């Protein structure tokens, strides 16, 4: 049994389902991300936990106590919003103090807590600043401190990094993870950025159309996606169109033997989904030999790896292949190559 | 020798305008474009304004005098100013309070909803060009033969005018002015209410705040400045208003704009031709102070949003 | 995605909201109803539409309506001609002048119309000497009167586009400044221009102070005049004015929205 449990949550807005039976368990001190495209229901789930929305059916349980009908202001949830959630008429310190004041904490205790929290989020000297005098990243740090000030039972993060610059985003997400681990805070983190979710979470829940497609550790979600949707949403993937043919998939002149094709009727359109780093490459000259052939179109240098875009012979499809940069150098644009992903991971689904 | 800063600045602008031309010429040409506007505004706005302001300090022969202004400080004129200020202050307060309530009721609905569209459009009509029609609306309602007057008389035997012909005096003006003051408040105050982000309320709630705590510590303080600003704007608006009062009150001149009407329609004593301009100057000063404060508050407010 | 549904405990707020709307709604609708009632009174407690049909039978009134409509159009055009090139030019080339122009445009808010008309009276002696005493000469004052509202609308329009970049792009493709103005600026701030024009139209149609004190017979002046002898007719016209202005502004709110909708689609 988890510390925070979401049981069978359903919610629709004006007939449109936003959550279609969501179950989720978080153990104490765990950080779970809900990842998905906009409209998948992840924010709705978070807002139901926070108490800002009421689920049509289902329950929210914290530490064994059903809080489904407890109003938001008595739930003790710390929430960090997307942006601009700091009270503009209060300084950073006053913002952090707000929740403590409502809890009737003494002034000595309050200022001690505020100083600690400012220190924790690395803004020791910024207590006297107003929100409009701080950068977006600093504002979100204050928002985090404000949410933590009330020593919440659960920390809720609603895309707290999405309004920030790429560099600040990476910095702050690592810091959130550090603080969360330090405090052992049970945290539900909502984001549409898969890199972010994979980087900071204990477990990632990938959502689509109000349902959880997969819930597992970042490594498993990435290496063993439970569905085509998860594969395509998490990380970079190639989708190659082909046709099933007697227990295999035909891509041009190439026949990809796979068990997955066994269930598909002959001649039906299929998609082969494969990550760029899971494709092998060799130089190829001469006659077709039954391998998947193509030629290098462009190269983009990404640091440790170089991404090659290969145009497949016989049709207009392109496919991205990542190779260590020193190896990729041997395949300048125009090189005829043979691709190999028979041995590696891929997924075959109906088109 | 030419100062290097001037040269480079001039050259830079000119290059952007028309390559190949001399810096001075480009600059002059750039300025030429705005000449028609400046000339027009000079003739039809600045000149008449200056005429009034300067006239306030001249006697009927054009010589400098302060007698117009000293006349302003006594008797009927001073009374008119006090009455105007009283009327404007009261209607500004009424307008601000009820207008803020109405804005709040509208703002919490859907942003593109029909209710909001209707209220905003109606507020625009009444606030900005009600004028004469408002006076007639008022007469149709509580005039001697008005709808409400007759209804009260026929149904309850109540005579609205048992005391006096109040609708043509200050109480009547106060009432009819609320019909454009409340709408103006809606127009001015709605954007401020829209500026309240739902996150603030939710943040307050998740930290344990109630609706009251939110308004007491967050919403209220944030809206205080816009409210004060709107109050000033409403004051200036009522103080400058003429049409409604003019259409309603044909006898006597209880307020400053109607005093000025007297001077323009020929009820002028010899040697007092420029007293009307002094009244104008007085109005500009009062309105100017209110609008100046309003602008200051606006600048402060814009920092938060 | 962040659609908000109200938790049940916000009921108190909803009740208060409804009460406010009902009370103030009644306060503002009552005069309209009264106008409707008053303007349809016949002899001996009967109902009659005489006041309404009378609108078209009074030649002075019809004349004054035409005058006001012409004034509204002329003033809007003059306002656009004065403001659009100037404001665009100032953003592009003379940002130093921006404060000055803004100050001048907003000045009429600080100079009450009743004060302005005191200074206008001598000026109009000259205007009428040179151009005759047609009421259409009011266009000159009205273009000034609508400046603050038009300025704000157009300024908002110009602020919503990246004028400098657009102009630089057009210039680099060989456009003259005239082309930039006509083919780039105007189409891109079309909504703002429509808004500014409609506001001007409504403002001019409702203007009374200046017209009446300069002795020109515009719609509002005529309505006021008729009110002295035929209250029913004046009230009918007043109601028509208010309704017309309302429809104008109501439509305006959709003009703004269509623009927003296209932005979202993009």
Automatic annotation (TrEMBL), chain A:
<dbReference type="Pfam" id="PF08402">
    <property type="entry name" value="TOBE_2"/>
</dbReference>
<protein>
    <recommendedName>
        <fullName>ABC-type quaternary amine transporter</fullName>
        <ecNumber>7.6.2.9</ecNumber>
    </recommendedName>
</protein>
<dbReference type="GO" id="GO:0005524">
    <property type="term" value="F:ATP binding"/>
</dbReference>
<feature type="domain" description="ABC transporter">
    <location>
        <begin position="4"/>
        <end position="234"/>
    </location>
</feature>
<dbReference type="InterPro" id="IPR008995">
    <property type="entry name" value="Mo/tungstate-bd_C_term_dom"/>
</dbReference>
<keyword id="KW-0067">ATP-binding</keyword>
<keyword id="KW-0547">Nucleotide-binding</keyword>
<dbReference type="InterPro" id="IPR013611">
    <property type="entry name" value="Transp-assoc_OB_typ2"/>
</dbReference>
<keyword id="KW-0813">Transport</keyword>
<dbReference type="InterPro" id="IPR003439">
    <property type="entry name" value="ABC_transporter-like_ATP-bd"/>
</dbReference>
<dbReference type="GO" id="GO:0043190">
    <property type="term" value="C:ATP-binding cassette (ABC) transporter complex"/>
</dbReference>
<dbReference type="GO" id="GO:0016887">
    <property type="term" value="F:ATP hydrolysis activity"/>
</dbReference>
<dbReference type="InterPro" id="IPR017871">
    <property type="entry name" value="ABC_transporter-like_CS"/>
</dbReference>
<dbReference type="Pfam" id="PF00005">
    <property type="entry name" value="ABC_tran"/>
</dbReference>
<dbReference type="InterPro" id="IPR050093">
    <property type="entry name" value="ABC_SmlMolc_Importer"/>
</dbReference>
TrEMBL record, chain B:
<feature type="transmembrane region" description="Helical">
    <location>
        <begin position="214"/>
        <end position="236"/>
    </location>
</feature>
<feature type="transmembrane region" description="Helical">
    <location>
        <begin position="278"/>
        <end position="297"/>
    </location>
</feature>
<keyword id="KW-1133">Transmembrane helix</keyword>
<feature type="domain" description="ABC transmembrane type-1">
    <location>
        <begin position="81"/>
        <end position="302"/>
    </location>
</feature>
<keyword id="KW-0472">Membrane</keyword>
<feature type="transmembrane region" description="Helical">
    <location>
        <begin position="28"/>
        <end position="57"/>
    </location>
</feature>
<protein>
    <submittedName>
        <fullName>ABC transporter permease</fullName>
    </submittedName>
</protein>
<feature type="transmembrane region" description="Helical">
    <location>
        <begin position="118"/>
        <end position="144"/>
    </location>
</feature>
<dbReference type="GO" id="GO:0005886">
    <property type="term" value="C:plasma membrane"/>
</dbReference>
<keyword id="KW-0813">Transport</keyword>
<dbReference type="InterPro" id="IPR035906">
    <property type="entry name" value="MetI-like_sf"/>
</dbReference>
<comment type="similarity">
    <text>Belongs to the binding-protein-dependent transport system permease family. CysTW subfamily.</text>
</comment>
<keyword id="KW-1003">Cell membrane</keyword>
<feature type="region of interest" description="Disordered">
    <location>
        <begin position="1"/>
        <end position="21"/>
    </location>
</feature>
<keyword id="KW-0812">Transmembrane</keyword>
Automatic annotation (TrEMBL), chain C:
<comment type="similarity">
    <text>Belongs to the binding-protein-dependent transport system permease family.</text>
</comment>
<feature type="transmembrane region" description="Helical">
    <location>
        <begin position="12"/>
        <end position="30"/>
    </location>
</feature>
<keyword id="KW-0813">Transport</keyword>
<keyword id="KW-1133">Transmembrane helix</keyword>
<dbReference type="InterPro" id="IPR000515">
    <property type="entry name" value="MetI-like"/>
</dbReference>
<dbReference type="Pfam" id="PF00528">
    <property type="entry name" value="BPD_transp_1"/>
</dbReference>
<feature type="transmembrane region" description="Helical">
    <location>
        <begin position="136"/>
        <end position="154"/>
    </location>
</feature>
<dbReference type="InterPro" id="IPR035906">
    <property type="entry name" value="MetI-like_sf"/>
</dbReference>
<feature type="domain" description="ABC transmembrane type-1">
    <location>
        <begin position="65"/>
        <end position="252"/>
    </location>
</feature>
<dbReference type="GO" id="GO:0005886">
    <property type="term" value="C:plasma membrane"/>
</dbReference>
<feature type="transmembrane region" description="Helical">
    <location>
        <begin position="104"/>
        <end position="124"/>
    </location>
</feature>
<protein>
    <submittedName>
        <fullName>ABC transporter permease subunit</fullName>
    </submittedName>
</protein>
<dbReference type="GO" id="GO:0055085">
    <property type="term" value="P:transmembrane transport"/>
</dbReference>
<feature type="transmembrane region" description="Helical">
    <location>
        <begin position="231"/>
        <end position="252"/>
    </location>
</feature>
<keyword id="KW-0472">Membrane</keyword>
